[in-house]
Specification:
It is a single chain. The chain is mainly beta and 435 residues long. The chain folds into two domains: 209 residues, no CATH class; 126 residues, no CATH class. The protein is elongated and about 100 Å long.
Length: 435
């Protein structure tokens, strides 16, 4: 072709190369103008085992790792059968909405714990209609180079695989260790209740209460030290309180060979205080009262008491009840009440089975040193690392009495198992079994 003919032709290179500077390093990006759709199952993904980060673990250790999923006719990823009835149905984002398609099990129901989702259970393979890919748009290799302009000292200190945009479903059978940067969102809802007994059921006058908080059955000393007749008695009391929520809390993993995420911003002390905002008395008898408050009333029905008496009792009961809840939470979490406002709740990564990636910063890298690659919110450690922002949602939605009792009576919460998440996405056809 002549120069004139060539000047009339428009074209685009399959590969392009650019350079940018950041953090004292030069980053050379070799990108390809193409889209890659992946559907892959890896029984065991282990990288960075031993080496500079120690001999006993791998930087990334994932069992039954899948990219992509099997979807139903509506294009919704199907979640594998639950391992137990309390495990929530799988969630998938479709046009900005969380919906679900949960594969049925012969022994475990698929009814939802979260009624904001729509249940569309698939039975066996009958509704497995299509595959959804894990898509990398304009994939690239990015090289981090130290002293790039010095031929004698230049050094490649990191290589990253990423894309201009990476999107699609990803799931794990078991995420044993993770290195890099992973974030999610946590939503806490402590459900309101009515007619809650303040002691254990065995100590309560009211055997018809909807739940029991577990307070000290001896009640509260109104005057400080014990004084005869100057004590409110929790055994003769039930209460009501409203729902309190904390939504959009940050869940963060940032480090090397991490096994737990941290839920930030819970401020459990303020959560308990907010519960007290709408706390009211439900049932009570004259046995609740200190003599100088209630005088000689004999009514078994709290509704027959004067508002002044009810206000006086509530003024004593409320701070005592809220303080006790804080003590229960702190004890169960292995901390003290003064630390509840800043406490970061651990959550085991082995409970995370589903991620949905939609990011222009997703990447898998191997680095000689800590490096903050372009687009990253934080540096990743030396060794192998993965960067997954906004990958999952953690919902904690329970009755207040149950949540407080569960935290106080066992170590599940402080050990990182406060709640379960959905099973992995289905991603197998034919004779494959783990996905």
């Amino acid at each position: 072709m002549s120069d004139d003919e060539l000047s009339e032709v428009q074209g685009q290179a399959l590969y392009s190369l650019n350079r940018q500077e950041q953090g004292g390093l030069s980053f050379y990006t070799l990108s390809m103008e193409a889209d890659i759709g992946l559907n892959a199952n890896i029984r065991s993904l282990q990288v960075g085992c031993g080496g500079v980060n120690g001999p006993d673990k791998c930087d990334i250790d994932i069992q039954n790792f899948s990219l992509g999923c099997v979807a139903n006719s509506a294009g919704i990823c199907i979640t594998l059968p639950k391992s137990n009835a309390s495990q929530p149905n799988g969630q998938y984002i479709n046009n900005g909405q969380y919906i679900t398609s949960q594969e049925a099990s012969a022994n475990i129901p698929t009814s939802l714990l979260n009624n904001t989702l729509t249940n569309s259970p698939a039975v066996g393979d009958t509704n497995q209609n299509q595959l959804l890919d894990f898509v990398i748009k304009n994939p690239f290799f990015q090289f981090a180079i130290k002293n790039a302009d010095s031929p004698s000292t230049r050094e490649v200190v990191g290589v990253r695989l990423g894309g201009a945009n990476v999107s699609g479903p990803m799931s794990f059978g078991a995420l044993n260790t993770f290195s890099g940067y992973l974030t999610g969102i946590a939503n806490l809802t402590m459900q309101g209740e009515t007619n809650v007994g303040m002691t254990e059921k065995s100590n309560s006058y009211w055997q018809n209460a909807s739940a029991y908080m577990g307070l000290n059955p001896q009640g509260v000393d109104v005057l400080g030290p014990p004084v005869a007749g100057a004590r409110t008695n929790f055994t003769h009391l039930t209460i009501n309180y409203g729902t309190v929520s904390r939504n959009g809390l940050n869940v963060l993993v940032n480090g090397n060979r991490v096994t737990q995420a941290k839920i930030q911003g819970l401020n459990l002390s303020s959560v308990v205080d907010d519960i007290g905002t709408n706390l009211s008395l439900n049932q009570g008898t004259a046995g609740i009262c200190a003599f100088f408050i209630c005088g000689g009333i004999d009514s078994m029905n709290i509704s027959g008491w004067s508002q002044g008496i009810k206000d006086a009792i509530l003024g004593i009961v409320k701070p005592a009840a809220l303080n006790y809840v804080k003590q229960q939470l702190a004890s169960g979490l292995g901390t003290n009440t003064s630390q509840l406002s800043t406490y970061q709740l651990p959550f085991n990564l082995s409970n995370v089975h589903q991620l949905y990636v939609n990011s222009n910063a997703f990447g898998l890298a191997i680095s000689k040193q800590n490096i903050q690659y372009p687009g990253y919110a934080a540096a990743v450690n030396a060794g192998w690392s993965m960067y997954i922002p906004n990958g999952f949602t953690l919902n904690i939605n329970e009755k207040t009495s149950s949540l407080v009792s569960n935290i106080a009576s066992n170590s599940f919460a402080r050990d990182g198992n406060i709640t379960q998440l959905a099973a992995p996405y289905r991603n197998c056809y034919g004779g494959l079994t783990f996905c």
